[in-house]
Hints:
By secondary structure, the protein is α/β, with parallel strands linked by helices. It has helices at 30-45, 68-71, 77-96, 112-118, 135-138, 146-153, 155-163, 170-175, 186-201, 205-215, 222-237, 240-247, and strands at 6-12, 15-21, 27-28, 51-56, 61-63, 65-66, 100-105, 108-110, 122-126, 131-132, 181-183.
Amino acid sequence: MTEQGKVTSTLDQGITTITFSHPRSNSMPGALLRALAAEIDRAGADKQSRVIVLSSEGEKIFCAGASFDEMKTIKSVEQGLQFFSGFATVILAMRRCPKFIVARIQGKAAGGGVGILSACDYVFAHSSASVRLSELAIGIGPFIIGPAVQRKVGLAAFTEMAISADWRDAQWAKSHGLFVECFATHKELDTAVSEFAAKLAGCSAEAMAKLKGVLWEGTEHWEDLLIRRARFTSDLVLSDFVQTTISKM
């Protein structure tokens, strides 16, 4: 474990399990985002890997979103673009990956963490897992992750999440399509993820790749859209409002 966090990957019986972690509530600095995207790309290209399970360490927090420590160091639009492009890079890697990505959500997800789980193809969660889009409160918005979240929950629910920074519990997330199923214990969650991944690993890789392509139709423009949104987010993060807000965190 380093201050930048880590990404680990294991392959067992056709199932690649990718796990990320960071000492600050599994937040995501740029280096960790790039490492996660690279590992998703690698697993997607590995013929021995048939399905991907995405998880994070710990029990209470899946992902706290962007690293505020790193955000505080942004002093130019170029630095901002490099940082915010990290989430775009991960989401785009998940979008183009020909393997289904199954998520294990054991706890809270905020900001970019919601974007990452939204880009997964099938999501299992613990009953304590809750979601929140908190970007507007600091003076930006869920611009980069927005397309992934809206694709899952629809425009009305995304609007609700984007404007109000309140936490929404696991049942809300399930009823709006973010989670497929919720479990009362972590043991039940682990069993469900393991059994489902094993089931997928026994399916036709070609059929799964074709189906994933169909399910993601209409997102081809994201390659340009997410980077464009990263650019104007970079402008916003340099505003007095944002700089003052994050300096207090």
